[in-house]
Amino acid sequence: MLFWTITAALVALIGLLLGLALWRGHAGEEPAAAYDLRVYRDQLRDVERDQARGVLGADEAARLKVEISRRVLEADRAAQGADAARRAPVGATLAIAALGLAILGGAFALYQRLGAAGYPDQPLSERIAISEEIYQARPSQDEAEKVAEAERGPAPAPDARFAELMERLRKAVQDRPNDLEGLALLARNEANIGNFRAGWEAQRRMIALKGDAVTAADYAELGELMIVAAGGLVTPEAEAALGKALELDQGEQLARYYVGLMMAQNGRGDRAFRIWSELLREGPESAPWIAPIRANIQQLAWIAGEPNYTPPPVGASGPYAADMAAAAAMSPEERNEMIRGMVEQLNQKLANEGGTASDWARLIASLRILGENDRADAVFAEAQGVFAGRDEDLATIAAANDGTVPAGGQAPGPTADQVDAAAAMTPEERQEMIRGMVDGLNDRLLAEGGSAEEWSRLISSLAMLGDAPGAQAALAAARENLADQPEAIAAVTAAAEAAGIAP
């Protein structure tokens, strides 16, 4: 109530001051014509005194009185007009007052609908603290399931034939408790008929039996079944299952989707946005999480401070066509700065959220291309620890590390004279020179072949010039030219992925 009282008092005071200003106009100011009028009247008195003293004759005095009287009449008319102009017309004043009242009334009505009177300011640190409180206060799996079950009501009875099959499946699993395939079937079908708890319990038993053979997908499915059983809430127990999945594979998409959902449920829409936007970019379009991500990504983007966010094409990695077109019009310094910005974003993502082996390979290859070999070495060492024991992922990362610029070396590039010449060129001339150098490298490689490093540089250069078809053609030619060198092909493919060219 205090809020509304203070607000109403302030609005009334402001309205009163505006009304007085409209009504009185410039009442405190004297128009110039009033000053002239006083001067002319003083002149009339002076003429009469001079005539009385005999300084002026009767004819001259009469002529001066007529001239001054004419000026008095003109000044008087001017003074009356100025006074009328200073005062706002009554009709206009009333119209403005009515409009002001309508605006104020509309503002109060809109605030009552959208505002939050008495709601305190919430700095970022306080909002994060509140999110942490919500996160810590989540109900357990058992508590959440009780609430969800009460809200759902009893599940519809399954078809009699299906119910009979389910009884036989349960009996078979009971008789053969170590049957992994039977447990997997039981978990899925229990969930299908609404027995969600029985479903995730069967999935958990299957995971325990698998031992070292368990996969990230197994844990992700366990987390999903628990979340469904809890009415869509990511409970601490479900989060633990998702965490196990990501320990085994940081790129596990189903687990990452539900981690993003957990972030959104606990007031961290900014983190949910980063996770879901990356999933949207990775695709595929047929993935079941793409539709809910599309339905909510714009709102999350606004929460994350990106109101102008445009969802990327599903399955696109690296720079988009618009990025390439923009890069083609940039100066070399601007283009290099843009590339560095994209590399830093990828580096930040991997540091905060992790990623797939391809993401790590793309970062390493990009750093090599930029000549930042010390950083590339550090990232490569970190990636080896992250993917320890996963030979296929380690091979992808090693190929990216070895296939561009050798450690301690620098990528061949323009000479000092070429750099000096480019500095004096117009952007169009500089672009033409760069295109000529790239075309020369392309012609030489097509005619004579070359190393994986050279093919990688050609593909990256064509991509940065916005020539995606040319980069695709160069990738195909490199694979043909290096057909007998699997490691070289892997390195060129990693460089293509780093440049946003689909292999």
* Overall pLDDT level: 78
Cα distance, first to last residue?
65 Å
- By secondary-structure content and strand pairing, the structural class works out as mainly alpha
Percent of residues in β-strands: under 5%
Task: Tell the overall outline.
Answer: elongated
Q: Can you count the beta strands? A: 0
Main sheet: strands, sense, barrel: none
Write the H/E string, N to C.
HHHHHHHHHHHHHHHHHHHHHHHH
Uncertain regions spanning at least 5 consecutive residues: 315-326, 404-420
Structure characterization notes:
There is one protein chain. With 503 residues, this protein is mainly α. 75% of the residues lie in helices and 0% in strands. The chain has helices at 2-24, 32-53, 58-86, 90-114, 124-136, 141-152, 160-175, 180-192, 196-210, 216-229, 236-248, 253-265, 269-282, 290-303, 321-328, 332-353, 357-369, 373-386, 391-402, 416-423, 427-448, 452-464, 468-481, 486-498. α13 (269-282) crosses α14 and α21 (427-448) runs antiparallel to α22. The radius of gyration is 40 Å and the shape is elongated. The two termini are 65 Å apart.
Topology at a glance:
Blueprint: H1 2-24, H2 32-53, H3 58-86, H4 90-114, H5 124-136, H6 141-152, H7 160-175, H8 180-192, H9 196-210, H10 216-229, H11 236-248, H12 253-265, H13 269-282, H14 290-303, H15 321-328, H16 332-353, H17 357-369, H18 373-386, H19 391-402, H20 416-423, H21 427-448, H22 452-464, H23 468-481, H24 486-498
